[in-house]
Design brief:
- With 426 residues, the protein is α/β, with parallel strands linked by helices.
- 39% of the residues lie in helices and 14% in strands.
- It has 14 helices and 13 strands.
- The protein has a six-stranded parallel beta sheet, sandwiched between helices.
- The N and C termini lie far apart (55 Å).
Length: 426
């Protein structure tokens, strides 16, 4: 391996929530190409704009050595390729490695001897060396760990979080040989001020990433199940959690919808791999089932409350406040609010979706849903506060309740409003 930090020319494949912040930071120190197959995305970045809102115009301008392209030929000048493409699940909840395989095929056509390919996409242990690298070998005709090398450094981006950014989150690194592991670790250390952790192998790094979100998923599932129990007992879940939270080692999880591209997806990668080697996971899949059913539970609770108030279910007008998978973020990936919307429509309710962070065209393209720009006063039989955007917090209870009819139900999933001003809390 002849690469050193003195002669790296980096390409970051995928300019989304993970790839762009990484490319911008590397572009402050090294020649960096931000590559994406979406021409419109490249054009907006070339114009100094980021529609994901992860990187400001000033930060884009400060990345002096970066350029952007959607042309594969432009990759040929690079010698370090960092892959940050999505790793979703299909409708059967199986890992969909199509984006990774296509990216690997593309890199196989441009990789040269001595180059390093680093994967950041979340996968199950073994995917880099067993699924991706053979594709690169087949297309390139080169031999792994002889002609080209690989690393794995799992992304730890938290969309919408302006405090925990790519540079101040400790980074796990790894490489396919000892020398490559040292190179990958040194490369990331040039931009990660919080430092790095060099894992013993690529598989260890892959496993570390996939259990980070699996752990959170199982913990949230436990709290969701507790919320179901406490609701049946007539006990306020938040009050219980606040009381328990006075103990120093009680973990501060909250009940809710578990969506997004990580927590709601990554556990299925681990369980898929476990099943492929003959082990059937119990706790992980139980947590997944519970979290995936929360949307249906929310609507069942809402309809019961409406019936008790004598509100007609069929043709009722319901306002869903928030569609993105988390607060103060435009990311719609795997949002579980769509489960609520779907369930409401099963009851033949009329659903309006209000979300100041969500572009209506993206909701239409992603889920076939339309959003409204403003809500009509006195129109709604029920309101569901599904995402805790700051704009909704600023409205307060009085303004939100002004959107409702005199006899209505307000269901606060995110504890945005005071307990006494709502009918239901999760």
């Amino acid at each position: 391996m002849s690469l050193s930090l003195d002669n790296v020319n980096i390409a970051v494949i995928g300019q989304g929530y993970v790839g762009l912040p990484l490319a911008v930071e590397f572009g402050k120190k090294f020649r960096t190409l931000g590559f994406d197959i979406n021409q419109a995305r490249i054009e907006e970045l070339q114009n100094g704009k980021d529609s994901t809102l992860e990187v400001s115009e000033q930060e884009l301008a400060e990345s002096r050595f970066i350029s952007y392209s959607c042309h594969v030929d432009d990759l040929k000048d690079c010698n370090v390729y960092i892959v940050t493409v999505p790793t979703p699940i299909d409708k059967h909840k199986n890992p969909d490695l199509t984006p990774l395989v296509k990216a690997s095929e593309m890199l196989g056509a441009v990789v040269s001897k001595g180059d390093v390919i680093i994967y950041e996409s979340t996968v199950y242990p073994g995917a880099t060396e067993e699924d991706c690298i053979p594709v690169v070998e087949r297309v390139s005709g080169l031999t792994f760990n002889q002609d080209f090398f690989a690393g794995y450094s799992p992304e730890r981006i938290n969309p919408g979080d302006k405090e925990h950014r790519v540079t101040n989150i400790k980074k796990v690194t790894s490489g396919s040989t000892t020398e490559v592991a040292d190179f990958v670790d040194a490369l990331y250390n040039t931009i990660i001020v919080s430092g790095t952790h060099k894992a013993a192998s690529i598989k260890v790094a892959e496993a570390a990433k996939v259990i980070e979100n699996t752990q959170r998923d199982v913990n949230i599932a436990l709290i969701n199940e507790l919320a179901l129990i406490f609701n049946k007992l007539g006990i306020d879940t938040l009050e219980v959690l606040e009381a328990a939270g006075t103990k120093w080692n009680f973990l501060p999880f909250r009940p809710g919808l578990v969506g997004g591209h990580c927590i709601g997806v990554d556990p299925y990668y681990l369980t898929h791999k476990a099943q492929s080697i003959g082990y059937h996971p119990e706790m992980i899949l139980a947590g997944r089932r519970l979290n995936d059913n929360m949307g249906a539970y929310v609507v069942s609770q809402l309809t019961k409350a409406m019936v008790k108030k004598g509100i007609r279910i069929k043709d009722a007008n319901v306002l869903v406040m928030g569609l993105t998978f988390k607060e103060n973020c435009p990311d719609l990936r795997n949002t579980k609010v769509v489960d609520i919307v779907s369930e409401l429509k099963e009851y033949n309710m009329n659903v309006d979706i209000l979300d100041p962070w969500c572009a209506s065209i993206e909701a239409e393209n992603e889920y076939g849903l339309s959003t409204i720009e403003s809500a009509e006063s006195g129109k709604y039989d029920a309101v569901i506060l599904s995402v805790a955007h700051n704009e909704f917090k600023d409205m307060g209870a009085e303004q939100i309740k002004s959107l409702c009819k005199g006899n209505s139900v307000v269901y606060d999933l995110k504890y945005v409003l005071p307990k006494e001003s709502v009918d239901l809390r999760l």
